[in-house]
Amino acid sequence: GAAFSFCSSLESVALPEGLISIGDRAFSGCFTLVNVIIPESVTEIGEYAFSDCTSFTNITIPEGVTKIKDYTFSGCSNLGSIIIPEGVTKLGHCAFIKCSSLANIEIPENVTEIEESAFFLCSSLDSVSIPDGVTKIADYTFNGCSSLANIIIPGNVTTIGEGAFQACDSLTSVTI
User: Fold this and answer.
1) Can you list the alpha helix ranges (DSSP code H) found in 54-145?
2) 161, 135 in Cβ contact below 8 A?
3) Hey, is 77 helix, strand or coil?
4) Tell me, what DSSP letter sits at residue 32?
5) Which of 2, 9, 67, 110 could make a disulfide contact with 25, Cβ separation 3.0–4.6 Å?
6) Could you give the 3-state DSSP secondary structure of residue 14?
7) CB atoms near residue 162 (< 10 Å)
8) CA 108 to CA 126: how far, in whole Å?
9) Residue 129: left if φ>0, alpha if ψ -120 to 50, beta else—which one?
């Protein structure tokens, strides 16, 4: 569970090798946390695990992780870069909501599901490539991505949800 949540002086964490799972809300609200080293043994990162870690600047997710769960990195307002491994197939509901410093993100080709509001209010996001396996752009996925200039929607997409690109003020090119 929320093992270290709201530890207001925690700046750096090196998790032990052999650790398999980071629980729900484990580091939620650790506002001063700048650096977390996640060992390669981790295969699961829980919901809200790093939500509102507002001092985070970058993170590397281990290769064994297959899902970015709901709200995992929500509100990480200084997160400028994140490396998502090739094995990830799903980006959860609000996974990156309010990550306002995230300028670009490489979504691995194996991702087939991007859930509702995944990138809501990612106001620095200027480029994103949606994998071919994605069939639905969920409600509010890119809502408020005010720096997003162009987007390519793959041919397999059959549904674009409500408000998916609302308030994308810089959008000049949409290729479907």
Assistant:
1) none
2) no
3) coil
4) T
5) 2
6) strand
7) 10
8) 17
9) beta
Query: In whole angstroms, what is the distance from residue 47 CA to residue 26 CA?
Result: 9
- C-beta separation of 102 from 82 below 8 A: yes
Strand partners, 44: 21
pTM score of the predicted model: 0.93
CA-to-CA distance for 126 and 122, rounded, in angstroms? Answer: 9
Nearest by Cα to 24 from 4, 54, 8, 10: 4
The encoded tokens of residue 97 equal 């909501």
Residues 115-173 pLDDT 10s: 999 999 999 999 888 999 999 999 999 999 999 998 989 999 999 999 999 999 999 98
Q: Which residues pair with 48 in a beta bridge?
A: none
**Pairing outcome for strands 127-128 and 44-45:** unpaired
> How many residues are listed for the chain in this entry?
176
Beta carbons of 45 and 25 less than 8 angstroms apart: no
CA 8, 10, 16 angle in degrees (round to 5)?
140
d(CA 172, CA 176): 13
